[in-house]
Backbone:
């Protein structure tokens, strides 16, 4: 009630005026008010208040309409922007409901799968990404819809006589059990390039290894003396030839390692190892060469336990030691020591020629 | 365990290798160093014929051969009389881990990679055969 007076001061003033006029008439202070005039004043006041209220309401409504229009334009603009983003995306995007009906698709999806806009409406993503096989509990679409899983998987897809390699991810759409979005990227050229590279490396490795087998085998058999006695010089020459054929083999293996690292297939196998024991193992690998050159290889590495890939580390140490021995003079010595700084371990290989080398292992 | 190789009862081995140079090295290595009784086949097909006609203790089988490669020869070998349980060791110049793993996942006993040390090839084969019986 209080609010009504506050909102309509004209109504309040009119009622006070009528009350005062009536009381003044009643006590004889003024002529008695004409009841018709009072009613007329009251009706006029109420009508004016009503008209003013309607006017105010109209003004408010049109302001609200304006705001609503601006908001609708904004929503529309955002929708168009989203649509444009989806349309220009190079990844294929297909959204489907729980019944595998496509509810949206972008041009990239239709281009990659070579489907027309009409064809995409009657196509089932589930069938396509299953390669015609029935659905199974490990199906990424099933997992995305029922367990909200977001795994990425590689799909080899035959499309009109050509094989397409796709990186596919499936995401649940609009919450649990509502539908799904399949996002796929064409990685055909990268996959074929990687496969070609692997094939070339495999063939090159094979082509080098085969003649190397004959060279290494012939030298080894000749050196054994089974096919006739050899002079000391002949034995020495054969030893060097064997040693270098083995170096060539290591280079071929390094080539394979590079390929492994490049394709990120090489996983490091971490294990617990002692620095001094690892150095002992590396020294044993080059004993043949060090004995031949009468080189003393001293292991002064600490007996510290570290976590590292034994084979990789051994390969590095053996390569460094092999080089150190190879370029050291007859009858000299080589020292291998270690230094540890928190998580960093440094192997130092020092020969008498001043050409020390070091390798870090974390 | 198989008996150690000796001159009176040498291990009878069939070497299947298309490269004549490599075949010569293997033959000399196994016959002269390891004192084995070595027979040679230059293709998968001739290996199958030889296994049908002769008894071998082990087959050393090259992987990359024209016409019939090592794995194909191995599969065919398992279907002929005398080849069902014959120990086979692959010899390969392939070295990628996935290639080696593929070969190890066959019915072959093991894989020896090229190049090999001719002074140790015989003992390598013997070791693989011994491990099979442990």
Residues:
């Amino acid at each position: 009630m209080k609010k009504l007076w506050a909102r309509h001061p004209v109504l309040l003033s009119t009622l006070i005026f009528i009350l005062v006029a009536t009381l003044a008439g009643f006590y004889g202070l003024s002529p008695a008010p004409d009841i018709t005039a009072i009613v007329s004043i009251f009706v006029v006041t109420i009508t004016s208040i009503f008209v003013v209220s309607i006017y105010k309401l109209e003004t408010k409504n049109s302001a609200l309409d304006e705001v609503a229009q601006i908001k609708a334009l904004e929503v529309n603009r955002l929708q168009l922007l989203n649509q444009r983003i989806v349309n220009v995306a190079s990844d294929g995007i297909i959204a489907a409901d729980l019944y595998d009906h496509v509810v949206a698709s972008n041009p990239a999806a239709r281009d990659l799968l070579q489907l027309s806009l009409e064809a995409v409406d009657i196509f089932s993503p589930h069938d396509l990404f299953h390669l015609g096989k029935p659905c199974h509990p490990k199906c990424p679409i099933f997992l995305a819809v029922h367990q909200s899983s977001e795994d990425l998987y590689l799909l080899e897809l035959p499309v009109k006589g050509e094989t397409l390699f796709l990186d596919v991810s499936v995401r649940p759409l609009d919450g649990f059990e509502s539908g799904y979005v399949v996002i796929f990227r064409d990685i055909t050229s990268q996959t074929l390039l990687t496969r070609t590279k692997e094939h070339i490396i495999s063939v090159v490795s094979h082509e080098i290894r085969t003649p190397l087998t004959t060279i290494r085998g012939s030298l080894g058999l000749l050196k054994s003396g089974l096919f006739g006695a050899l002079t000391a010089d002949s034995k020495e020459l054969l030893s060097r030839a064997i040693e270098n054929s083995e170096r060539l083999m290591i280079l071929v293996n390094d080539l394979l390692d590079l390929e492994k690292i490049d394709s990120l297939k090489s996983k490091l196998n971490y294990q617990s190892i002692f620095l001094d024991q690892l150095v002992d193992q590396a020294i044993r690998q080059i004993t043949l060469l060090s004995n031949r050159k009468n080189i003393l290889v001293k292991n002064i590495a600490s007996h510290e336990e570290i976590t590292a890939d034994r084979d990789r580390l051994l390969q590095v140490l053996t390569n460094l030691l092999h080089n150190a021995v190879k370029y050291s003079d007859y009858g000299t010595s080589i020292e291998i020591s270690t230094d540890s700084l928190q998580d960093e371990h440094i192997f130092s290989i020092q020969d008498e020629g001043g050409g020390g080398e070091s390798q870090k292992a974390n | 365990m198989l008996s150690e190789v000796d001159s009176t009862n040498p291990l009878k081995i069939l070497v299947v290798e298309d490269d004549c140079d490599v075949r010569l090295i293997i033959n000399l290595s196994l016959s002269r160093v390891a004192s084995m009784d070595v027979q040679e086949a230059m293709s998968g097909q001739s290996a199958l014929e030889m296994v049908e006609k002769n008894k071998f203790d082990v087959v050393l089988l090259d992987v990359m051969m024209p016409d019939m490669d090592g794995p194909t020869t191995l599969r065919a070998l398992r279907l002929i009389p005398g080849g069902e349980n014959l120990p086979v060791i692959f010899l390969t110049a392939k070295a990628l881990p996935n290639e080696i793993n593929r070969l190890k996942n066959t019915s072959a006993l093991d894989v020896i990679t090229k190049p090999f040390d001719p002074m140790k090839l015989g003992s390598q084969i013997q070791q693989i055969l011994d491990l099979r019986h442990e």
About this structure: The radius of gyration of chain A is 45 Å. The domain at 270-361 of chain A is CATH 3.30.565.10 (Heat Shock Protein 90).
